[in-house]
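Q&A FORM
Asked by: J.P.
Topic: structure of Sulfopyruvate decarboxylase subunit beta

PROVIDED:
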Amino acid sequence: MIRSEILKEIAPILRDQLVVCNIGIPSQELHAIDDQPTNFYMLGTMGLASSIGLGLALTQPKTVIAIDGDGSVLTNLGTLPTIGNNAPDNFILMIVDNGSYGSTGDQPTYTGKKTDLAGMARAAGCDNVVEVQDVDTGAALQKAISEKKPTVMVVKCDSGNAKMPVITMDPVVIKDRFMKAVAAS
Ligand SMILES: [Mg+2]
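REPLIED BY: S.T.
REPLY: Here is the structure written out as C-alpha cells.
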C-alpha cells in the first residue's frame, strides 16, 4: 500500500479526531480524500507536524493524531525526545514510513537503509512504540485511540504518491477553521 491508500482506509477513524497532517502531498491526499474542519493541513514548516500536534495535545483534552512522515521526522529528530519526555495520554504520532521524501520526488531516506525510527523513538524515551504494516494501520490506530496513552506508530508502507489537487484554502482560513473546530470539540 502507498500512503494515500492508508489514508483512505483510516479516514473514517480520523474523522472524529483532531488531526495535524504533514506538509505537502500527505496534506493534499488527506484533504482530497476526506476534508474535515478538524484537520490541520500544514502548508509550510517541514518536520513540525509532530511538534504542533504535541503542543495541541498538551493544551486540550481531546485526542490528537499527528500524521508525519519518515523524511519529516528525520528533519526534526529533536521531536522524539521532546515527545518521549512530555507527551500526554491524548497524543498519537503516526509516522508513515515509506522510505522516501515523497513530496520532493520520492528520493530515498535512510529508513530504507539502516536507520530504524521505532528504535530511535524508544531510545528517545517514547514508552509505547508500535511498528505496523500498512494493512494493519486501521486496527492499530483504533487500538491506540482507545488505549489513551501516548503512542508512536511507525507504519511501514510503499513509496508513492496519489495525484491529488493542491489545497487552495488560504493557510489563515485553514488555521481559523481548525481553531474553531478545536474549540467546539
Ligand atoms: Mg516518506
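FOLLOW-UP: The mean pLDDT is 97.
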